[in-house]
Automatic annotation (TrEMBL):
This is GDSL-like Lipase/Acylhydrolase family protein. It comes from the Bacteria. One of its GO terms (molecular function) is hydrolase activity, acting on ester bonds. The lineage of its organism: Bacteria, Pseudomonadati, Bacteroidota, Flavobacteriia, Flavobacteriales. InterPro entries: SGNH_hydro_sf (IPR036514).
Length: 314
């Protein structure tokens, strides 16, 4: 029995020492990676977040839809595929610079998604041992994750190791020339396939699942995240704009009006561009919810005029 306890103790010590050594090595590599969405884009964001005048946050519909190279202002597009408002709120909580313009993407269906739990922010776990603001913010919503990461340090790199090593050894672009915007260039075959989908299933353009839902309510957690963003912007005297980028599927007017009223009640600017394109142009789209680079450029120019007009930017 005594030997078993001693063996377990030795194994536990070896495990914890190994865990911390491996995590320490991964952190050193992590810090040097500035490409890819595994950790690189976030590291890039942290390297310049308090030096640029405009930041864009949101999902793939922010990442692929705002060509911030068109904007006559220093900016970075921190849109990230597969993320939502919790991820954006966590990053915004780290901002220190005063007087920035923040564009935060939100979709109608996300705002009213009762099942959303904020777990998208957990992809920032690797930053919790390097940034106190991220740790503090995440602790409010996922304290158990912070406790686990303090016990098992390598936990913060769960699912990220291969991406980190790949971008450390072979970065696929020069991050010094990267604005954060990732344009979509559908090839001819993809365009033809999508055009056939539009013609054969045109009802999808009119699809609006939310219209069938009575008594729509904003997810309380999303409301809390939006409140956190608003308060941080007030602290930094930053100008905040929520927006919805174009899509092919129509949104019911009742839903659009309810969303508009929600942001008006918060006294926050909201731009609804979901129906920006009145007619279908095959050159502007990759799929029903994502624009091609050509469509994104057209949209960005219109958004630029609106922002510069509303905020009197020279």
């Amino acid at each position: 029995m005594k030997k078993s306890i001693q063996l377990l103790l030795i194994l536990a010590i070896v495990f914890f020492v190994t865990d911390r050594l491996i995590c320490m090595c991964l952190k050193e590599i992590d810090k040097k990676v500035f490409t890819g969405q595994s950790v690189g884009k976030v590291n890039h964001f942290f390297s310049l977040k308090d030096s640029v005048n405009m930041l864009i946050f949101g999902s793939s519909r922010a990442n692929h839809h705002i060509d911030n190279t068109v904007l006559d202002i220093t900016s970075f597009n921190m849109g990230a595929d597969g993320t939502r408002i919790g991820y954006s709120a966590a990053l915004i909580s780290t901002l220190k610079k005063k007087g920035q313009i923040l564009l935060v993407h939100i979709d109608h269906e996300i705002l009213y998604d009762s099942e959303y739990d904020g777990s998208d922010m957990l992809s920032l776990m690797n930053m919790t041992q390097r940034n106190a603001d991220i740790t503090t913010f995440m602790y409010k919503f996922f304290p158990e994750e912070i406790y686990i990461s303090k016990t098992f340090n390598c936990y913060i790199y769960n699912g990220k190791v291969l991406g980190i090593l790949k971008n450390y050894v072979d970065p696929n672009y020069d991050y010094n020339r990267y604005s954060g915007y990732d344009p979509l260039f559908p090839n001819l075959e993809q365009r033809n396939i999508f055009n056939k989908m539009v013609k054969s299933d045109s009802l999808k353009l009119e699809q609006d699942d939310l219209a069938a839902v009575s008594d729509l309510e904003v997810n309380p957690l999303i409301n809390k995240f939006i409140g956190e963003i608003i308060e941080h912007c007030k602290t930094n005297n930053s100008r905040l704009v929520f927006f919805t980028s174009p899509k092919l599927r129509k949104i019911h007017n009742n839903v659009r009006n309810k969303t508009k009223q929600y942001f008006e009640s918060k006294n926050i600017s909201y731009y609804d561009y979901s129906e920006f394109f009145k007619e279908y142009n095959a050159d502007y789209w990759k799929d029903f919810t994502h624009m091609s680079a050509q469509g994104a450029t057209v949209f960005t120019k219109a958004l630029k005029e609106k922002i510069f007009e509303d905020h009197e930017i020279n």
